[in-house]
Every structure is written in C-alpha cells, then in structure tokens.
C-alpha cells in the first residue's frame, strides 16, 4: 500500500522535487502573509497614475485573473518533471524572487483604491468576491505577474515541451498580466516589476548555486 502511494505521488511530483517544492510553498506563503501582518498599520503608497485611471474596469477579466491559479499550479508541477537541473534552478529562482518581494513589501508597501461601482452580472459578483478575499496590499511587484512569467521563462526554451504549449503558456502569461490591471488589482508598475523580477531571478538562478538545490551532474 505504501509503495503504491509513493508511486502515485511520484507520477505527480518526482521524489527529488517534493521536499524543495514544499519548502518553496511554505516560504512563499510566509513571506506574503507575514509582510501583510507586519505592515498592517504602516503607510502604503498608491502607484496609480493617469494612464491606469483611463483604463476601463473590465470585470470579465476576473476569469483570467483566477485562471492564474490552475495555470501556476499545473506549470509548477510540470517543471518538476523537466529534470533536476531545471527543477532546482526554478526553485532557486522562486526563492530568490520571493526574498526580493519580501524586502520590497517591507520597505515600500503599496496599495490602491479600488472602484466602488463594479456593475452587475456574474463577473462583477465574482470580482467583488476577489476584492473581499484579497486585500489591496503587497502589490509591487505583482505576484500574479511574477509567478506566471517565471513559469513562462522556464518553459519557453524547453524543447521537450511541445511548441504549441509553450506558445499558449506565453499568451496566458500575458493575459494574466493584463487581467491584473483590467480588474484593478494592480497598476502598470506592479506588472513591470513582476516581469522584470521573474526574468532577473531566472537569470540569477542560473549562476547561483545552492548545494541542496543544485543537481549533481558528476555521476
């Protein structure tokens, strides 16, 4: 029975990826929730500019905004099957990116003013639910943009992944970034910050070697 369970788990998450992935998720969650608690009474800056105020609220993009979660989870698991070298580099990039996020959330806490009139309909109701569940803090950089773009950065040059999937991954990452502004969860600076941090973390992770998160290639 135990062996069957291990085999089933192994098909979803390779053994070498399981512990680093769990540590990564715990670290990310701690950074996000912990900084929100620490900065609860602090002054927060609003980076909303004139351009964002001209962009209409598009509640329909709430669907894209929420599709981020299965998109990220699916790719997070997929990357684990690309071999130790790629998987561990991804983990290093994620930990590095979230460390930078934690610093920024503390030294430069941000917020925005959400629209009061969300309109009517299913998408407006869904957006209202998102607003209730997700307070407007820890906005710069956008975690939605960071995480989705980091997955794309990893997958876009993986030849073993079908080209159509890599293209769709890029399109979806772009749509997720657009959705964060369309539903007024983020501003353009948050989007740019998330993308740049994803690219920088992925590049840095290629040079950064952490013994526990570096695949051995000498055997």
UniProtKB/TrEMBL annotation:
Record keywords, A-Z: Membrane, Transmembrane, Transmembrane helix
Residue intervals passing through the bilayer: 12-32, 63-83, 95-113, 139-155, 167-185, 191-210
Pfam families assigned: PAP2_3
Inositolphosphotransferase Aur1/Ipt1 domain residues: 140-203
Keyword Cell division tagged: no
Magnesium is among the record's keywords: no
GO cellular component, one term: membrane
Superkingdom of the source species: Bacteria
InterPro entries in UniProt: Aur1/Ipt1, PAP2/HPO_sf
Name the record gives this protein: Phosphatase PAP2 family protein
